Amino acid sequence: MVDRRMVSATAIGALAVVSLFFDGLFVMVVIALIAVGLYEFFTLVEKKSIPMYKYFGITLGIIIPLSIFSRFELTKGWEFLFISFALGVLFVLQFSRRESTNAVLAISATMFGLFYIAWFFSFMIKLKILPYGTALVGFLLLVTKGADIGAFFVGRRFGRHALIPHISPKKTVEGALGGLAAAVAGALASRLFLPDLTAFSWCNLVLLGVVLGGLGLLGDLSESLIKRDCDTKDSGTVLPGVGGVMDVIDSLLFTAPAFYFYMTYYLSRTFVSGTGF
What per-residue confidence (pLDDT) applies to 200? Predict the structure, then answer.
């Protein structure tokens, strides 16, 4: 199992690194992960006998990153227009069903999937199109996935005390601490390729490592909660030894938005101060 996990992780890592230097490939990878992730999520929820608007949800999930990459904004707050449109269509689709059983759950779960997977993961593209976008995404991946790897190996070797056993029995306190340490180490190592900005002072890098490492753990636990509620061990089987796409991107769903807002704050201050990008 570990060997298969390593092979899958190596392949995913190589694809991630290569895609960083080609915008078109990067967007295609993000869209593919969103589409498969949504399919896995909707399939999980269907196991609870809740009817899902699976293909409508996946279609909207693909539109979100495409609109971000193309800088499409029909209105200033186009997100609210998008939400209103999605809800309206979901109600119409529900009207066409012969039964109204679980209607609220079906609509709510579909919208939740769009927010949780499609919108949150689309922040990867928002981050990529910022100034220094390639370096920023590389930093985020190194810190977030470094924390995942650190937690796995430290927990496997030294794990003794369960973290939250009723949600994820195999996650340990030792593993969580190892993940945070790996996140901080990754953040500090990233100083080699990050731009010379106040946002990446040594002190800020340590804080970023701790915060992003903690948010990544929160994302991992959140997906574990969803899988446990749906009585499933892995979100899918597309990646041997790892599971599904949701098992790969779960930590990034929380760290990508947080890091994006952190960077937009610092970049806006840099621009206003007149020092430029």
Answer: 94
Q: Name the 3-class secondary structure at 163.
A: strand
pTM for the complete prediction?
0.90
pLDDT tens, 146-196? 999 999 899 989 988 999 998 888 899 999 999 999 999 999 999 999 998
Let me know if residue 277 belongs to a domain: no
Looking at residue 192, what DSSP letter applies? G
Phi, psi of 170 (to 5 degrees): -85, -15
The residue segments making up the domain with residue 213 are 2-272
Residue 84 class from Cβ within 10 Å (0-12 exposed, 13-18 middle, 19+ buried)? Answer: exposed
How much is the pLDDT for 275?
Answer: 42
Cα-Cα-Cα-Cα dihedral sign, residues 97, 103, 108, 109: negative
CA distance 181 to 69: 33
Residue pair 62/31 in contact by the 8 Å Cβ criterion: yes
236 contacts 272 by C-beta, under 8 angstroms: no
How many domains, in total, are found in the chain?
1
Give the Cβ contact number of residue 37 at 10 Å: 27
Distance, CA of 179 to CA of 143 (rounded, Å): 9
- Give me the phi and psi of 130, to 5 degrees please: -75, 160
Distance of CA 217 to the CA centre of its chain: 12
Q: Give the separation between CA 207 and CA 98, rounded to whole angstroms.
A: 53
Residue 80 has phi, psi (to 5 degrees) of -70, -35
